[in-house]
């Protein structure tokens, strides 16, 4: 059952008490009614965050930045702020499940610092990129990943990260660093790039890889929120109030997505996500179209889809070859 873990029940009740206290202090019912679209957006966004390797920002960032014309930096911050609750809640639910082996998630302890270094680098170096390029890159990233993810036979089988050589560790560190940079631009993305590497290069089970990507993005969201609030001092009262509007929604919906992931095949949900991502990309390019926007969208999509497809297809071929060799190996007669 969803609430059968005592640890998660205590977490959920405690966080709801915190929300009531914060809402009573900093927010109001009229503000919530006026900004109803924030929790509405996160009903789907948080569910996606717990169900798939795409964080809640994969819904929140494009809806706020592209559809509602909210400042790109504010959309990124909202994604980080809301994931700090939702994806952390999903992580607590995952870790409190008795059937999940905690040893499978130990690598997250070193994944997070590397990804956070990328986040800090991105915050200090990459913020001058034009907004339309960032929007085109993000929409291309989530659309092409979802297309390649659902179209390929990418299922891994390992429940733990294998012992890796120096080259693999450097590759993993580079991907984590790049994921942190993505989070500094979009508020999400580290989970997508990490998941892709785990299931392709390291042949990890897709659910374990999804869990690890959720935990990493949860930690980066908490650290990123703290960085923006205390180091940059860039979080406004308005942002805190919009965060509080969606807080209870993501606290429940993200772990609920993880629960559904543990029970069901999710291909139907993934098809819906693909359709949503394609619609977002089409809307972005039809709204005030320019040659630069269209060129960036097409270019990023072509490159990213090729990368995702080739890596996932390579994994499928390798597994098929390995299976074929195993089934054709002659059996020595017993003496």
UniProtKB/TrEMBL annotation:
Topology class, membrane: Multi-pass membrane protein
Transmembrane segments: 12-33, 39-66, 102-122, 129-150, 170-197, 209-228, 240-261, 298-316
Compartments, as annotated in UniProt: Cell membrane; Membrane
Any single Pfam family the record assigns to this protein: TauE
Any GO CC annotation of this UniProt entry: plasma membrane
Annotated keywords: Cell membrane, Membrane, Transmembrane, Transmembrane helix
Domain of life according to the entry: Bacteria
Family that this chain belongs to: Belongs to the 4-toluene sulfonate uptake permease (TSUP) (TC 2.A.102) family.
PANTHER family to which the protein is assigned, alphabetical: MEMBRANE TRANSPORTER PROTEIN
Designated name of the protein: Probable membrane transporter protein
Species this protein is from: Brevundimonas mediterranea
């Amino acid at each position: 059952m969803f609430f059968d873990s005592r640890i998660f029940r205590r977490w959920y009740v405690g966080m709801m008490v915190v929300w009531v206290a914060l809402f009573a202090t900093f927010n109001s019912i009229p503000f919530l009614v006026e900004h109803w679209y924030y929790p509405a957006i996160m009903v789907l966004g948080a569910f996606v965050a717990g169900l798939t390797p795409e964080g809640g920002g994969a819904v929140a960032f494009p809806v706020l930045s592209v559809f509602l014309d909210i400042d790109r930096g504010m959309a990124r911050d909202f994604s980080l702020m809301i994931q700090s609750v939702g994806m952390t809640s999903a992580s607590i639910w995952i870790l409190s499940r008795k059937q999940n082996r905690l040893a499978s998630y130990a690598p997250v302890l070193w994944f997070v610092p590397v990804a956070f270094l990328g986040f800090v680098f991105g915050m200090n170096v990459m913020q001058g990129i034009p907004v339309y390029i960032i929007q085109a890159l993000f929409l291309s990233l989530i659309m092409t990943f979802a297309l390649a993810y659902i179209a390929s036979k990418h299922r891994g089988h390992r429940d733990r990260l294998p012992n890796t050589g120096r080259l693999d560790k450097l590759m993993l560190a580079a991907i984590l660093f790049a994921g942190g940079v993505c989070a500094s631009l979009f508020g999400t993305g580290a989970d997508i790039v990490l998941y892709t590497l785990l299931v392709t290069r390291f042949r990890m089970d897709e659910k374990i890889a999804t869990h690890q990507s959720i935990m990493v993005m949860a930690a980066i969201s908490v650290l990123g929120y703290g960085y923006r609030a205390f180091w940059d001092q860039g979080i406004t009262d308005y942002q805190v109030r919009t965060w509080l509007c969606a807080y209870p929604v993501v606290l429940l919906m993200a772990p609920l997505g993880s629960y559904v992931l543990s029970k069901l095949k999710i291909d139907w949900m993934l098809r819906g996500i693909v359709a949503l991502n394609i619609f977002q990309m089409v809307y972005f390019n039809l709204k005030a179209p320019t040659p630069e926007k269209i060129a960036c969208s097409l270019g990023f999509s072509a490159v990213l889809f090729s990368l995702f497809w080739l890596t996932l297809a390579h994994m499928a071929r390798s597994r098929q070859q390995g299976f074929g060799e195993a089934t054709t190996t002659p059996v020595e007669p017993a003496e």
